[in-house]
From TrEMBL:
A Pfam family: Proton_antipo_M
Residue intervals passing through the bilayer: 6-27, 32-52, 85-107, 114-130, 136-156, 168-190, 210-233, 245-265, 277-296, 303-322, 334-353, 365-387, 407-432, 453-472
Name of the protein in question: NADH-quinone oxidoreductase subunit M
Signal peptide as annotated in the record: none
One GO process term, biological-process aspect: electron transport coupled proton transport
Organism in which the protein naturally occurs: Thermodesulfovibrio autotrophicus
Annotated NADH:quinone oxidoreductase/Mrp antiporter transmembrane domain residues: 132-412
Subcellular location: Endomembrane system; Membrane
Bilayer topology term: Multi-pass membrane protein
EC number: 1.6.5.9
Main location group: membrane
Keywords, alphabetical: Membrane, Oxidoreductase, Transmembrane, Transmembrane helix
Length: 497
């Protein structure tokens, strides 16, 4: 732990939501369950504040490190810490968890106790993923997300929820099994340790690096999701309750990109450099293909889901362009996508609560019927397009800068991807907001209430904060990115195996 924080703050923040679960189990009143969930998530954000105020931005090392024996026989430890790459994801998880509780306030009326317990368990697992410094501990938290998410989709989802939840589990589980084999192989190959810092210092044979890269790729490419492993995402997003979609868009997809940065690149530096073009091309295919498929959608939620495939292609392109500005943009764009697409799924959730339809043909004229809703929807749509002054503009600009620096032929197709992104969002806006209100939904439309307005305001603030002051989030990640790229491009002090 750092000298400024003398207590195990990361463990407290990670496991505090489970205290909320224990209290919820004892409650019998649904209203009390909801208040307990919101109190737990808000308190956890407040408890975490010293992590961000005491974080040393000039250091690339892990901070607030906690280290306890877990399974000494196999050198597995409970070891957690945060660096510049993980700290913003912890913050995003804390904020998204509060919003998931708020957006479900009136939408979830059945088995309320179980629903909010799953949200809080998810919060613990997601924070654990970003804090784990032991590879086996990371895998435990990674797998711990699977069951709560499966239940969120399978119990509180829409008509085809069972199909979507099973598909989500099969895709994720298949990828994670290959990752587990990779972890075990790495454990024996690197001197029987799961310590992420120690593993990063090991120079592995190139053939093993290729095998390990693709073992991890199987898990993280599904999670992002990258083309052609994306087919579970539209079904899961479409059938999930609003909170499930927000968690998927806000956090779960980011774990794939985080995994590439945290594990694939440092553990397999030579393989990463050799496969750079392959990963860039896959990312470009995801951007262009995802955008064209998005244009064809007729379901409000499915359209935003497919747009995530395109947006996350920008992220992986930024990561695997392997230069400072592109990787800054890639990591920042993961945060931005979590904020903006999470907000768009919340918009769909609140309007679906009123109309009970996601078919775009039944929408139109919302600008006249629900002006406050449209005010927020317009703002987040502009942010999704990457309008100057919003957070996505900064992320996409950095990625484009880095992509052109990597290769003219890699950067040029991005222009088409950005143009297509603007096209499908404007086309969607035209169908939903403009024209006349459709009679099928007219009588059900009423504008946002105070709770709904309050849950959008923090996201508006974050979009503008990153849009106008990008140096604030970038100051957290700069040092760690430079250290990662320096280790990749100028390897020294590596132990040969």
């Amino acid at each position: 732990m750092t000298e400024t924080v003398s207590y195990p703050i990361l463990s407290i923040v990670t496991f505090f939501p489970l205290i909320g679960v224990l209290i919820i189990i004892l409650l019998k009143n649904d209203r009390a369950v909801r208040y307990t969930a919101v109190f737990t998530t808000v308190m956890n954000l407040l408890i975490s504040i010293p992590i961000f105020t005491n974080f040393d931005k000039s250091s690339s090392s892990f901070q607030f490190v906690e280290f306890y024996n877990w399974i000494p026989a196999i050198n597995a430890y409970y070891k957690v810490g945060v660096d510049g790459i993980s700290i913003l994801f912890v913050l995003l998880t804390l904020i998204i968890s509060i919003l998931c509780v708020a957006v479900s306030w009136s939408a979830i009326q059945e088995t309320v106790k179980l629903f909010y317990s799953m949200i809080l368990i998810m919060e613990t697992a997601m924070i654990g993923v970003f804090c784990a410094m032991d590879l086996l501990l990371f895998y435990v938290f990674y797998e711990a997300m699977l069951i709560p998410m499966f239940l969120l989709i399978g119990i509180w989802g829409s008509a085809n929820r069972i199909y979507a939840s099973v598909k989500f589990v099969l895709f994720t589980f298949a990828g994670s099994v290959l990752m587990l084999i990779g972890i075990i192989s790495l454990y024996f190959m690197a001197g029987k340790t799961f310590d992420v810092v120690e593993l990063s210092k090991v120079k592995l044979p190139l053939e093993f690096q290729y095998w390990l890269f693709f073992a991890f790729f199987a898990a993280f490419a599904v999670k992002v999701p990258m083309f052609p492993f994306h087919t579970w995402l539209p079904d899961a997003h479409t059938e999930a309750p609003t909170a499930g979609s927000v968690i998927l868009a806000g956090i779960l997809l980011k774990i794939g990109g985080y995994g590439f940065v945290r594990f694939s690149i440092p553990f397999c530096p030579d393989a990463t450099l050799s496969l750079k073009l392959f990963m860039q091309v896959l990312s470009l295919v995801a951007i262009i293909y995802g955008a064209f498929v998005t244009l064809m959608q007729t379901d409000f939620k499915r359209l935003i889901a497919y747009s995530s495939v395109s947006h996350m292609g920008f992220v992986t392109l930024g990561i695997f362009s392997l230069n400072t500005s592109a990787m800054q943009g890639g990591i920042l764009q993961m945060i931005n996508h979590g904020i903006v697409t999470g907000a768009l799924f919340m918009c769909i959730g609140v309007i679906y609560e009123r109309t009970h339809t996601r078919e775009l043909i039944k929408y139109g004229g919302l600008g006249k019927a629900v002006p406050i809703f449209v005010l927020f929807y317009t703002f987040f749509s502009a942010a999704s397009i990457g309008f100057p002054g919003t957070n996505s503009f900064i992320g996409e600009f950095l990625i484009m800068l880095g992509a052109f620096k990597s290769s003219f032929y890699i950067g040029t197709p991005l222009i088409l991807g950005i143009a297509l992104g603007a096209t499908y969002m404007i086309w969607l806006y035209y169908r939903v907001v403009l024209n006349e209100v459709k009679p099928e939904i007219k009588e059900h439309l009423h504008d946002l209430n105070l709770r709904e307005v309050l849950m959008f305001i923090p996201l508006v603030f974050l979009v503008l904060l990153i849009g106008f002051q990008p140096s604030i989030p970038l100051s957290f990640i700069d040092t760690s990115i430079k250290h990662l790229l320096d280790s990749l491009l100028n390897p020294v002090n590596l132990t040969m195996k």
